[in-house]
Design a protein that fits this description.
The protein is an alpha/beta fold. It folds into two domains: 12-128 and 265-325, D-Maltodextrin-Binding Protein, domain 2; 131-264, Periplasmic binding protein-like II (D-Maltodextrin-Binding Protein, domain 2, 3-Layer(aba) Sandwich), CATH 3.40.190. The chain has helices at residues 12-17, 57-63, 65-75, 87-95, 106-116, 141-144, 189-201, 218-227, 240-243, 250-253, 276-290, 293-303, 317-325, and strands spanning 47-51, 79-83, 101-104, 119-125, 131-138, 150-152, 155-157, 180-183, 211-214, 232-236, 255-264, 267-270, 307-310. The strands form three sheets. A six-stranded mixed sheet has the order 2-1-3-12-4-13, with helices on both faces. A hairpin with a 2-residue loop joins β6 and β7. α3 (65-75) crosses α11 (276-290). 48% of the residues are buried. InterPro entries: PhnD (IPR005770). Residues 1-23 form the signal peptide.
């Protein structure tokens, strides 16, 4: 199944490259063996791990350093983590062999595989769940909540969203008409695709029906609502926990009032240019790491991941179809 491609800016592939010196990271060109046949290209002498900006970009590489250190040790070659400019830049970097490992959202996993033959090796689990919803959140619960918000672990939810039944509360999303709404880029399943599709299904004009406040990451969407720059924001569930350390009252000031249909979890893709042996070593190292207490804690700090499990690439088709329904090209 193929969908219309998302239209990319001409500089998308270079956006990730500019964040780190990547010389020498691409695979070496293959020579010829004694028989004159082309020899397989050698695996690179170093690897780049592409991270997408689901939280503050400045701190994400430092947060992920224990992960890249672990990979460096297990693989025996240096692994460097870099944060892409946006979701699509990470995909294009993998296609250009400027990144060989990608921690990517579900749509970008599908794109990396479909466009460039990347192997989707792992998908994430969060507290035993293999899917997650996008959330609609607000600083104006009197407008969007039809009931009294419920406090759950210091976080407020209304319209039944505390039960994590998906979807829920979607009748309330029509009230965004005319409001300022914090929106991630079109490549984000939780920050754009699924919320926009839900709004479209409810008859909301997603082009002109509300004022879009562009944000670059899920935590920025939360903070836009927290600070009052936007009345409503989209993010993955529950992105408020990312900023709770620095803003302890975020769960009281930012209320979740609706949840989207379930979205397949994000995961890990590895470049098709790597040997099968190195691909397997990467996926095994990551999966084993996620099964340790220390590894689980690091992965949770990066992307709220509690475990990495073998991937089911066909499960990603649903996100590709959702993107297609929005006419993304």
């Amino acid at each position: 199944m193929r969908i219309t491609r998302l239209r990319l800016a001409a500089t998308a592939a270079t956006a990730l490259i500019a964040t780190a010196a990547l010389a020498g990271c691409s695979s070496s060109s293959g020579g010829s063996d004694a028989s004159g046949s082309a020899a397989p290209a050698a695996d690179p002498s170093s690897l780049v791990l592409a991270l997408v900006p689901s939280q503050d970009q400045a701190g994400l590489v430092d947060t992920a350093k224990p992960l890249t250190d672990m990979l460096t040790e297990k693989l025996g070659i240096p692994v460097t983590g870099v944060v892409s400019k946006d979701y699509q830049a990470a995909v294009e970097a993998m296609g250009a062999d400027q990144a060989q490992i990608g921690f990517l959202p579900s749509l970008q996993l599908w794109q990396a595989s479909d466009r460039y033959g990347a192997k989707v090796v792992l998908q994430t689990e969060r507290n035993g769940a293999i899917t997650y919803p996008a959330q609609f959140m607000t600083n104006n619960p009197s407008k969007y909540c039809s009931d009294t918000p419920v406090d759950k672990d210091g976080m407020l939810y209304c319209n039944g969203t505390d039960k994590l039944a998906t979807p829920s509360g979607l009748d309330a999303i029509t009230k965004v008409a005319g409001a300022k709404v914090a929106v991630l880029g079109p490549g984000s399943p939780a920050g754009y695709i699924y919320p926009m599709l839900a709004l479209k299904d409810k008859g909301v004009d997603i082009d002109n029906g509300f004022q879009k406040i562009p944000v670059t990451a899920n935590d920025a969407s939360v903070m836009a609502v927290y600070k009052g720059d936007a009345e409503v924001g989209f993010s993955f569930w529950d992105a408020r926990t990312i900023v709770k350390k620095d803003t302890p009252d975020v769960g009281q000031k930012v209320v979740v009032f609706a949840l989207s249909d379930p979205i397949p979890n994000d995961g890990v893709a590895v470049s098709s240019k790597l040997s099968p042996e190195l691909q397997d070593k990467i996926s095994t190292a990551l999966a084993d790491y996620s099964n340790t207490d220390a590894g689980s804690a690091v992965l949770k700090s990066i992307y709220s991941i509690t475990k990495l499990a073998p991937a089911n690439p066909s499960s990603l088709d649903v996100v590709a179809r959702a993107a297609e329904q929005l006419g993304l090209k």
